[in-house]
Amino acid sequence: MSRLLKKILFFFSSFLLKKEHEKTKINTLKISDDIILNVMDKLSDFENKQGFLKPMTLHKLAKKLKTNPKYLSKIINNHYQKNFSSYINDLRIKYVLKELKTDDSLKTTTVKALAKRIGFGNTESFAKTFKKHTGENPSNYLNSLNHK
């Protein structure tokens, strides 16, 4: 068998295995499609209304969305490929980065006040998540905005 044919076969078999794994992953949720769609709609509404700006736990959000925490966690893990904390914190960081571009008053606020404003319980968690997204710590990022 030629090397090219072997590579092509390897590519397709890898592709098919990945697709089969995705099907299995979806089936392991053991949650009805109606419930998944309902929770996904409610999560979309939650995001649009910026509910993530308030302090939030998995149990609090599950109660708000009228579902159970186990289902909510599984749906977030499966559909967003992240855990609940990462899901909420990523939404917060995306929000604050967008706001920093349009709201000049935020550029002069303290890191602690900024963290609190977008729902983080502590500055360290905010700084860690912020750096993960931007590659910079929040104070350096704010300083660079103030010097533009």
Describe it.
With 148 residues, the protein is mostly helical. Among the domains are: 1-30; 88-146, Arc Repressor Mutant, subunit A (Orthogonal Bundle), CATH 1.10.10.60. The chain contains eight helices and no strands. It has helices spanning 3-27, 33-48, 58-65, 69-80, 84-102, 111-117, 123-134, 138-146. It is flat and about 55 Å long. Residues 22-27 have low confidence and may be disordered.
Gist of the model:
With 148 residues, this protein is mainly α.
Number of helices: 8
Order of helices and strands: HHHHHHHH
* The CATH fourth-level homologous superfamily of the domain at 88-146: Homeodomain-like
Using only CA atoms, what is the Rg? Answer: 20 Å
Can you count the beta strands? 0
Q: Main sheet?
A: none
**Roughly what percent helix?**
over 70%
Note the overall shape.
flat
How far is it from the N-terminal to the C-terminal residue, by CA?
Answer: 61 Å
CATH structural fold name of the domain at 88-146 = Arc Repressor Mutant, subunit A
Tell me the strand percentage band. under 5%
**What structural class results from the helix and strand content?**
mainly alpha
**Proper CATH architecture of the domain at 88-146:** Orthogonal Bundle
Mean pLDDT: 85
Uncertain runs are: 22-27
**What's the CATH first level of the domain at 88-146?**
Mainly Alpha
What's the arrangement of secondary structure elements?
Blueprint: H1 3-27, H2 33-48, H3 58-65, H4 69-80, H5 84-102, H6 111-117, H7 123-134, H8 138-146
